[in-house]
Write a structure and sequence with these properties.
- It is a single chain.
- The protein contains 14 helices and six strands.
- By secondary structure, it is α/β, with parallel strands linked by helices.
- The longest helix has 22 residues.
- The two termini are 44 Å apart.
């Protein structure tokens, strides 16, 4: 039990960093070497109308390439409502210039001077994945930290509606600190209570549900009814998170805990993820096909694969689709001629 608990603690510490720059804090000053796109901007200056998104990227980061058109589109659509996107990189200018010719940014971006901004926004908080984004409200408080590919537009809308504000951010921050304290003390009841609180504050954050699920199943902190209730809350709270829904669909079919499986919910979650208009459409389609396969609906799995085959030009994604299609072709051959299964 202690070994598993220590592993879960490590997961929480890595997923929920809370050191220097944290929710509710004001924006750190930028360390600018040179502005390379857009107009200079300063997220530390608040006029009560403008709100900032500060993003970290690199020319060597494929997800960063995916995020550029998304952020450009969001900047165009919400700029008149006060949004100002500012991004930075520590890459050399000679690498950045040709990159931007291929991937133009319709928002402000600068070269980080001697890594100063990287330290203020990333290193000081032990964050090491990019792209990484920091969203501040109109009062200058940090209200969200995450991947710009993860429902960024919804986060922007939440700032505009007032749902994401300093008070909410501090409530999340305090609950995260309580969660880490409970893990350190190996207080399982405290962990479960705090995770439930966090799920209510950020219902579309799949990290909380995943840790909660592992506590219930691997540590035996709950029974089948507790697991099913958690999966139901997760599904209800993940209406717009394709990544969270895909993870949910996998866990709901967990072969390691057959008595706690929920095939119906797994299919519903996979279908919802696939129905969303997101940059994870192909991955969601592959996940849906796998879920259909798990319940024996090879016909629906093949239909889904055929749909997504024309949605991507990415070589890795196309290879994955073709590999799964070949698997189903082989299954059909064996069904027609069992002797075909013999080596």
């Amino acid at each position: 039990m202690k070994r598993t608990l220590a592993f879960l603690l490590a997961c929480v510490v890595m997923a929920l960093p809370a050191v220097a720059l944290d929710l509710g804090d004001p924006a750190p000053a930028l360390s600018v070497d040179k502005w390379i796109t857009g107009e200079p901007a300063d997220p530390t200056q608040n006029d009560g109308k403008t709100f900032y998104l500060v993003e970290v990227w690199s020319v060597t980061c494929p997800p960063c390439v995916q995020s550029i058109p998304i952020m450009s589109d969001i900047q165009k659509r919400y700029g008149d409502e006060g949004l100002k996107i500012v991004s930075f990189t520590t890459d050399a200018e000679e690498d950045v210039t040709p990159f931007l010719e291929q991937h133009p940014m319709e928002y402000s971006s600068f070269l980080d001077k001697e890594g100063g901004s990287m330290v203020s926004y990333m290193a000081a908080d032990n964050r090491n994945t990019i792209p990484h984004a920091f969203l501040f409200d109109r009062e200058g408080a940090l209200v969200w930290i995450g991947n710009p590919l993860d429902n960024l537009e919804n986060r922007v809308k939440d700032v505009l509606s007032g749902r994401l504000n300093r008070e909410h951010a501090i409530a999340v921050r305090d609950a995260r600190e309580d969660l880490q304290d409970a893990f350190t003390a190996q207080n399982i009841a405290g962990m479960l209570t705090t995770l439930t609180t966090l799920e209510g504050l950020e219902p579309d954050n799949g990290q909380y549900y995943q840790v909660h699920y592992r506590l219930l199943t691997e540590l035996g902190a709950g029974d089948e009814n507790d697991v099913q209730a958690l999966l139901g809350r997760w599904y209800a709270g993940s209406e717009s998170s394709p990544e969270g829904l895909m993870i949910l669909s996998v866990l709901a079919m967990d072969q390691g805990h057959p008595s706690m499986r929920n095939p119906g919910l797994a299919v519903a979650a996979a279908r919802r993820a696939y129905a969303l208009d997101s940059d994870l459409k192909v991955q969601a389609g592959l996940n849906l096909a796998e879920t259909y396969k798990s319940i024996g609906r090879f016909d629906l799995a093949k239909e889904t694969l055929n749909e997504i085959a024309g949605m991507t030009t990415n070589d890795d994604e196309r290879a994955m689709i073709e590999a799964v299609q070949e698997f189903f072709t082989r299954i059909e051959e064996v069904a027609k001629d069992p002797a075909a299964a013999q080596p």
